[in-house]
Write a structure and sequence with these properties.
109 residues, alpha+beta, 2 helices, metal ion binding, electron transfer activity, Beta-grasp_dom_sf
C-alpha cells in the first residue's frame, strides 16, 4: 500500500495538501471529489469518460505524468479555459510517479 502527496489549488485559490492512494485505481478527478475540493455537480459531470472537461486541471508541477491520450487531447481541443498545461483529471490515474504533483482546478464553464 502506497500513497502520494499532491497539492491541489481549488477554484477559490486555496491550496490543499492531499494524500492519494496508489492502490485503489483512482484518478485525480475522484481524489478532488473525495476531498470535496469542487462544488458538487461541477466536476466529473460525464462520470470520468473524457467527454465534458469539467475535471480540467492546470499542471503546475509535473513529476512524471503519463502522456496525454487521443481522447483527452480531442476533448481539450473543444473545452473552455484551456492552457498549454491543461489535463483532464479523469485521465490522470494515481501512480507513484505523481508524488509531488501540483495542479490547479480550471474554472467551471
Amino acid at each position: 500500500m502506497s500513497d502520494v502527496n499532491i497539492k491541489i489549488t481549488d477554484r477559490e485559490g486555496v491550496t490543499h495538501d492531499v494524500i492519494a492512494p496508489t492502490d485503489m485505481s483512482m484518478n485525480l478527478m475522484e481524489i478532488i471529489r473525495s476531498y470535496e475540493l469542487a462544488e458538487e455537480g461541477t466536476i466529473g459531470v460525464c462520470g470520468g469518460m473524457a467527454m465534458c472537461a469539467s475535471c480540467q486541471v492546470y499542471v503546475i508541477n509535473d513529476p512524471g505524468l503519463e502522456p496525454m491520450g487521443d481522447e483527452e487531447d480531442a476533448m481539450l481541443a473543444e473545452a473552455f479555459h484551456v492552457k498549454d498545461n491543461s489535463r483532464l483529471g479523469c485521465q490522470l490515474h494515481i501512480a507513484d510517479a505523481m508524488e509531488g504533483l501540483e495542479v490547479e482546478i480550471a474554472p467551471y464553464p
